[in-house]
Each structure stands twice: as C-alpha cells, then as structure tokens.
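Figure 2 data, in text form.
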Amino acid sequence: METIVPFARFHKYHQSKMMEKQIESVKDYLISMLLSDFPGVKITVNIKNWSELSWNAFSGELQKQNINLELCSKRDWENFFYVEKERFVTIKKELFKLQNLTEIRQYLNLS
C-alpha cells in the first residue's frame, strides 16, 4: 500500500533540505576562499567548523599554521568572516524554526 505524504509536509522537508545545503555552501565558501588566499593552509577540524568559532579563535587557528594576516588583509578577512557567519547563523535559525514547526505540527497531527 502506497503512503501519501501531504504536500505541505513534503514542501517543508524539501525546504529543510535546501536550507541544509545552503548552510554547507556558506561553510564551504569560506573554506574555498581561505584555500585560494592561502594555498598551504591545512583545513583542521576547527577551521572546518569555523562557523562555531569567534574571530579571535579562527584567526588563532591560522596563526598556529604560521599564517599571519597583514593589517589590511586581516580587516578584509575579519569582515568576510563576520558576514559569512551572519549568513550561516541566519539560515541555521530559519532551519531550526522550520524543523520545530514541523515537529509541532506532527505532534498535533497537522499537515
């Protein structure tokens, strides 16, 4: 017997998957820019999870690898870091809201 999934639930699932891809895209974009500017950088676990770090922790990870940002480059990278982190946090919040709404609707047996 075929299970029929209400369109609204399918739409929210699809929207959730798209938001997860956006989150990964934001994370990957900063890493690709980092590799472009500093080809020798090793992508450590902390650098890979940059979105969970403060600017000081992130730049500290770069310093551990002897990557010293010049003053103008540091300002550009700091600004870029904050802009990308804000994009990440915004999408993550929307995803969280969507997932919570879906869970509440499931609990209440709404579609």
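Caption note: The CA atoms of residues 103 and 109 lie 10 Å apart.
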